[in-house]
């Protein structure tokens, strides 16, 4: 009840002002207490793995934090503030702070940013921060073209890298690699010096080519550049099974063109005449016509190149792999098969390869991890006993007036020069055989300890046979 009295009114006004003053103090104290609340969060990827070294900033301020090795961060923030989270390889994410104080935030991988990450001698770096010359080939690019060896995959894909293939023989068609013409490059597969053609392309995650001073960490061996191959590894999640199949056909890129039998007979007639003999010493004009008409089985027109080589040869590749794991154990296992036929019509030049790879990573505790990599490869080469250079020499001197085949298949046909028979040189029944079986086993055991101050120590044992 209010009374219209000046003294009482003044007293009431003083009371109201006092109440408002204390109310403002309480609201300010509450606001201050609220603004100083600590927000705790954990950043993980799509496989629930922690993301260390990510940046967490409050939008439009300079206040921020960095996630630790376990992906955890702490920051003073108020309700309604927006946290801007960024990390190399992941999309930038914004999270509005609510009433709760604990958050688990999942970041999505960014394909565009991942393209900027390359493997170098001292780890993985963002491409824009590297001053040296480094080129990278991703896994999806490696299986676009069917090849028998991994070395062929880099042809035309990396600037400054020169590949040279000296033979197309199945199983021996690997190319030599040199960078900028300085000689053969150093090849490292998961940190071990290993021939590049012993790795199945389906097992490769990335290939990095170090061309200049960026390779100096490997010492004098890297004087001609380094090719770093990183194989695929397991990821947290349910087992994922992938099957890759490819069937392709190959053909000789270039072959000799031979004269027809009647043209050959005409040239022999001219040679006899120029040599001081008679024009009809070896072949008469009637013989030339018989060769040309093709009605007489004794007068053939044999294309020896066609008799020896197929026009197309098949190549089949299969690969089955499985990957998965938990926070403690991750695995990747791959089984591959390649079957490549040779270009000989005899069917006695073939190559087959079987390969198995298993990469296992075990997290023993927060600081200690253990890894085992095993790779097995078996190569079968079946070929006739005659070396290819001798066979090609026979082919050069084979005359088109003689048939490449006889009615008696147990006998080799005469080609017109000595005892040479190009087709017989490609057949094991006549030339003997040179069958070769090679097996390779590579093992790697790794023990790694992570210290609290950001450094790690690693011990690696490897075996190769």
UniProtKB/TrEMBL annotation:
The TonB-dependent receptor plug domain, residue ranges: 127-226
Return the Gene3D superfamilies for the record.
Answer: TonB-dependent receptor, plug domain
Which keywords accompany this UniProt record? Answer: Cell outer membrane, Membrane, Signal, Transmembrane, Transmembrane beta strand, Transport
The family this protein is said to belong to: Belongs to the TonB-dependent receptor family.
The scientific name of the source species is Zobellia amurskyensis
- List the protein's name: SusC/RagA family TonB-linked outer membrane protein
Q: What main location does UniProt list? A: membrane
Q: GO MF terms on file?
A: siderophore uptake transmembrane transporter activity
Tell me which InterPro entries the record gives: CarboxyPept-like_regulatory, Plug_dom, Plug_dom_sf, TonB-dep_OMP_SusC/RagA, TonB-dep_OMP_SusC/RagA_CS, TonB-dep_rcpt-like
Q: Which SUPFAM superfamilies match?
A: Carboxypeptidase regulatory domain-like, Porins
Pull one GO CC term from this UniProt entry.
cell outer membrane
Q: Which GO terms describe its biological process?
A: siderophore transmembrane transport
């Amino acid at each position: 009840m209010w009374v219209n009295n000046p003294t009482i009114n003044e007293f009431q006004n003083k009371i109201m002002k006092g109440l408002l003053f204390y109310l403002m103090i309480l609201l300010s104290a509450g606001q201050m207490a609220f603004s100083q609340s600590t927000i705790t969060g954990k950043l993980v990827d799509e496989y629930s793995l922690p993301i260390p070294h990510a940046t967490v900033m409050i939008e439009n301020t300079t206040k921020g934090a960095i996630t630790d090795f376990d992906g955890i961060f702490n920051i003073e923030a108020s309700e309604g503030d927006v946290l801007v989270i960024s990390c190399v390889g992941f999309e930038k994410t914004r999270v509005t702070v609510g009433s709760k104080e604990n958050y688990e935030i999942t970041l999505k991988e960014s394909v565009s940013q991942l393209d900027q990450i390359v493997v170098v001698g001292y780890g993985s770096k963002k491409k824009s921060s590297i001053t040296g010359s480094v080129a990278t080939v991703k896994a999806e690019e490696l299986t676009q073209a069917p090849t028998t060896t991994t070395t062929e995959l880099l042809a035309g894909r990396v600037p400054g890298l020169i590949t040279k293939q000296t033979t197309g023989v199945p199983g021996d068609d690997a190319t030599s690699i040199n960078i900028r013409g300085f000689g053969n490059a150093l090849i490292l597969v998961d940190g071990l010096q290993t021939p590049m053609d012993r790795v199945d392309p389906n097992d490769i995650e990335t290939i990095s080519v170090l061309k200049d001073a960026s390779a100096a960490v490997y010492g004098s061996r890297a004087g001609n550049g380094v090719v770093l191959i990183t194989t695929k590894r397991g990821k947290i999640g349910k087992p994922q099974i992938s099957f890759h199949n490819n069937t392709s056909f190959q053909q000789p890129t270039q072959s000799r063109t031979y004269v027809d039998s009647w043209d050959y007979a005409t040239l022999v007639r001219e040679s006899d005449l120029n040599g001081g003999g008679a024009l009809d010493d070896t072949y008469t004009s009637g013989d030339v016509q018989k060769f040309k008409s093709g009605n007489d089985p004794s007068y053939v027109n044999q294309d020896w190149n066609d008799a020896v080589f197929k026009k197309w040869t098949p190549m089949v590749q299969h690969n089955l792999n499985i990957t998965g794991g938990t926070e403690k154990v991750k695995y990747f296992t791959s089984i591959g098969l390649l079957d490549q036929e040779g270009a000989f019509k005899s069917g006695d030049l073939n190559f087959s390869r079987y390969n198995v790879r298993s990469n296992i990573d075990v997290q023993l505790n927060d600081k200690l991890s253990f890894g085992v990599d095993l790779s097995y490869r078996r190569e079968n080469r079946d070929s006739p006993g005659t070396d290819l250079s001798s066979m090609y020499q026979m082919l050069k001197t084979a005359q088109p007036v003689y048939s490449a085949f006889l009615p008696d298949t147990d006998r080799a046909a005469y080609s017109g020069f000595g005892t040479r028979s190009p087709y017989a040189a490609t057949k094991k029944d006549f030339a003997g055989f040179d069958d070769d079986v090679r097996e390779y086993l590579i093992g790697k055991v790794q023990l790694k300890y992570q210290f609290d101050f950001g450094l790690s120590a690693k011990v690696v044992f490897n075996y190769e046979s």
